[in-house]
From TrEMBL:
Classification via InterPro entries: ANL_N_sf, CapK_Type1_Caps_Biosynth
MF (Gene Ontology): ligase activity
Keyword hit for Ligase: yes
Protein name per UniProt: Phenylacetate--CoA ligase family protein
Keywords recorded for this protein, A-Z: Ligase
The keyword Nucleotide-binding is assigned to this record: no
Coiled-coil region list: none
Length: 451
């Protein structure tokens, strides 16, 4: 009885969502698009953009008001470039106008998501349910360019649940992953004593490929080379969530004796771009998103600029020209492959140094964005390590922050991962200095350790 109720309540809906006709329908739609011409894709993108803008004019109070003031008429849009008449949408604008950005006909029906922010600003947003299915479809297609096929046994080096609080979520994730053929190893618990398990699992699970955060992939690759291990052959490796430097790519490819494919995404939009086998840049999902690179005034630039993204299928809380905090550069030439999607030449996403302890435990940089996701009253944060036994966390607080509760929850999450080896100190500051390129670095290690 208990089993049955568990099955119907948790397992079956997950099964449904996996087999859900819409995800597969959208997946097939996106797969079909990759055989179209660049002009056909541009036409699809424009038609989707016009439909979205029309929806915003009818149902989204924020755009109704600001477009009226601007004198912008969505019906006049002739090309995607006409978007430059509209201002950029920053995280702070979304925070200030949160309710007005939700479409009136989707109020209360959306999925709410939180992010630790690629630039150290915790952030909350919503998207509609169909949007979720579409995101999956686009992501599966992008991974497919690396050789992934739906249902392939995939080993994940990924950030999992942290501490006791997340046990329920962990079980849900486990079932979902199981149904997708995924085996997820939690990199937040990787250290020098258990790193061999990340290799052992390749022998026992026999995956088709590995998807991982870049830095744990790199750690494992170094370990494999150091121990001279010959790992079973893999079809592909996909690196995600962190930038992939060429020096890291070489080491990972050497250790696993297979190609590594770079991807770029963020929580607000899931997969934005991915490499094909020609690896001349990241193909952008322009039949699903508008991806612009802009200066601070919202004008398109051919140089390095703000990643500025419009999700053509988030009708629940449309984010038009959303600036996610990353810097990127579009490629002016097209790929030598047959895909109709343009290329992103480079992206400077989150720069996350790892945090280490005297005993050799490692906290990947991704740990902190994950932890800060739920801290809505934190405007910005930065983790700095100058000594092996302590870290300093700088916090720019918003009104209403319960600092004692926040400190307690962070202390216990860090303790769950590295025990008593690391003391955490909090500093409440008015501002956090940005890097020369205008980004906030989420974690900074000033220790002289090889990355
Ligand atoms: Zn290509």
């Amino acid at each position: 009885m208990l089993y049955f109720s568990f099955l119907s309540k948790h397992l079956y809906p997950l099964y449904e969502s996996f087999r859900g006709r819409k995800t597969h329908l959208y997946y097939r739609e996106y797969l079909a698009n990759q055989h179209k011409t660049p002009d056909e894709i541009a036409a699809i993108q424009l038609q989707k953009l016009k439909a979205l803008l029309h929806h915003c004019q009818l149902h989204v109070p924020y755009y109704q008001k600001s477009w009226r003031e601007l004198g912008f008429d969505p019906a006049s849009v002739q090309s995607v470039a006409d978007l430059n008449q509209l201002p950029l949408l920053t995280k702070s604008l979304v925070r200030q106008h949160y309710d007005e950005l939700i479409a009136s006909n989707f109020r209360g029906k959306n999925i709410t998501k939180t992010t630790g922010g690629s630039t150290g600003e915790p952030f909350r947003f919503e998207h509609d349910r169909e949007n979720y299915d579409r995101r999956q479809g686009v992501a599966w297609r992008g991974y497919g360019w690396a050789g992934y096929e739906l249902g392939d046994k995939s080993l994940y080096y990924w950030g999992g649940a942290i501490g006791r609080v997340a046990k329920k979520a962990a079980l849900k994730d486990k079932l979902y992953n199981m149904m997708l053929g995924r085996n997820v190893l939690n990199v937040f618990y990787m250290d020098k004593d258990n790193i061999h398990r990340f290799v052992d699992e390749i022998f026992s699970f026999k995956p088709h490929g590995i998807v991982g955060y870049t830095s744990p992939l790199f750690e494992v690759a170094q370990y494999i080379l150091e121990k001279n291990i010959k790992v079973p052959s893999l079809g592909w490796i996909i690196s995600a969530a962190e930038p992939l430097y060429e020096s890291q790519r070489e080491i990972i490819e050497q250790a696993f004796a297979t190609k590594v494919f770079n991807t770029y995404g963020c929580r607000e939009f899931t997969l934005i771009g991915a490499e094909c086998s020609h690896q001349q840049g990241l193909h952008l999902n322009t039949d699903h998103l508008v991806v612009e690179v802009t200066d601070d005034f919202g004008q398109g630039t051919q140089g390095i600029g703000n990643m500025t993204i419009t999700d053509l299928h988030n009708y629940g809380m449309p984010l038009i020209r959303f600036v996610n905090g990353d810097l990127g550069k579009l490629k002016q030439t097209s790929c030598s492959c047959d895909l109709p999607f343009p290329l992103l030449e480079s992206v400077e996403g989150r720069k996350l140094d790892k945090i280490v302890t005297r005993e050799g435990k490692i906290i990947p940089g991704e740990f902190f964005p994950r932890l800060f996701r739920e801290m809505r009253e934190v405007e910005r944060y930065q983790v700095v390590q100058e000594h092996l036994d302590r870290i300093e966390i700088n916090i720019v607080a918003l009104p209403g922050l319960d600092s004692a509760a926040m400190e307690h929850s962070i202390q216990s999450a860090v303790k769950a991962v590295v025990g008593q080896e690391l003391s955490v100190f909090f500093h409440y500051v008015d501002a956090i200095a940005l890097t020369a390129s205008g980004k906030n670095r989420v974690t900074i290690s000033k220790l002289d350790v090889a990355s």
